[in-house]
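New to this. Look over this protein:
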Amino acid sequence: MTILGSKTGREPAGRDVRPHRPAPGADQDQSPSAARRVAAFWLVAAVLFLSLAAASAPAPLYGVYQAQFRFSAATLTAIFAVYALVVLITLLMFGSLSDYLGRRPVIITTLAFNIGACLLFLTARGVVLLFAARVLQGIAVGAATGALGAALIDLQPNRGGLAPVVNTGATMFGLAAGALGASGLVQYGPAPTHLVWWLLLGAFSMAIAGILVMPESAARRPGALASLRPTVKVPPRARGTFAVAVPCLQAAWALAGLCLSLGPSLAAQVLVSPNRLWGGLVVFLLTGIGAAATVAFRGLAAPTAMLAGCLILLTGAAVTFAAVAAISAAAFLSGIAVAGVGFGLAFLGAFRTLSALAEPGERAALIAAIFTVNYLAFGIPALIAGVAVTRYGLHVTALVFLGVIAALAAAAASSMMVRKRSHGQRVQARSN
């Protein structure tokens, strides 16, 4: 894995870059009217929301599949983790492809993969097809992450800072809605392992129709084949900030991985209830409140949001740790909700800070690098936890997992405070 630089100008930190203007000679539909750009912007946001909703929909279904196909907790988390692994591989290989082929072809391809995943879930009669469906979902989300994030920046109205907020919010609201909606359908709807996939199948089909008529926001350029070499492309001016953001992102997404893999099982144990809606609620409290926090606190400066997010995430992880230790349902739900605020602020602050440092031709690649960190933290700890559960039990494993998350959040916050103090001292020294 290599980190490649680029020959571009310097963009001030803390500001969002301008939307990508079509290259000379691009198709006429690459210079759409303001109304078409706004419509395309929200269509892309809806596709991002839908893709993440589909990715989280299996979370409340794992228990149903486990009962039907009789597999272990380790297999359950492996089904979850294979998705994160494939997302990571796809990000490394195809994360920047839309910078060369254009946003629209890549987005349409990812929607086709999502349709394929829905069909596999609908026909699953065993573990093999569950793994296959998650692989297709991983390819879809991995390839879509860079393309959709870059398209939002390209198309954002009035050259404002809306894209990072919408990207973060759509990602988190998608995860929240998918888990909560699927858990409600599983608990109260007919055909618990089929209805959600039929609904998503219809939604993805309509999304393809919308993207087909969407204006292209990035002109084709040479280098598509070379871009497939697995790389993490972080522009030189963003590397220092990227390094500071890594532990913050790791803490936030490791907690998300716990909630989406073992969260429903943990909720059933702590709340002493077999109702599968609780499992979806745990995911919703983390990601839904996280999404609301990104909107409510969007006016915060990016570094402030990132630091506040880490401190609040640390608090939420500590409360959740105490709740699991004491088997307290109210404290457990409260801790997850507090952690959700931290999750949203930390992700928003990191994403906004970093995305402001990318030129148009670097956007998809840098976004792919951000999500590479996210999905490493999302999948690997959850897989380790699944193996640990079979030996040490869910209770002990969850406590260790939450302790590690709290330590990561504390380390991230400490690093940011030291960096801020050092920067202030340098500025004071120059002024003297």
The chain is about 75% helix and 0% strand.
